[in-house]
Amino acid sequence: MYILIYIAVISAYFFLTTLFFSWNPVWWHIAGIIFGISVLLISINLHADIANFRAFLIEIESIFKTLREAEKADEAKVS
To answer: Where are the transmembrane segments (predicted)?
Structure first.
């Protein structure tokens, strides 16, 4: 993940420096394509992290639900 961020930052820097200090549009396109691909990969990676976090929250919720059911069963046994 951090490697993708470094690639995005370096390619953005490369794109901006070639944009302002060079008049060769081939380098603009190369840097822009690298930047776009790295940003796309970062967004895909973040989406996967969010999905994993949601699955983690669902798992925690099911654990608490099981604990509540066990507590209700214990109360029913006592009564």
So the answer is: 5-21, 27-46
For the chain, how many structural domains are there in total?
1
Please state the length of the chain.
79
Nearest to 15 by CA among 35, 37, 42: 35
Reduced 3-state DSSP string for the chain? CHHHHHHHHHHHHHHHHHHHHCCCHHHHHHHHHHHHHHHHHHHHHHHHHHHHHHHHHHHHHHHHHHHHHHHHHHHHHHC
| Single pTM value for the model | 0.47
Instruction: Report how far residue 2's alpha carbon sits from residue 61's, in angstroms, rounded to the nearest whole number.
Output: 30
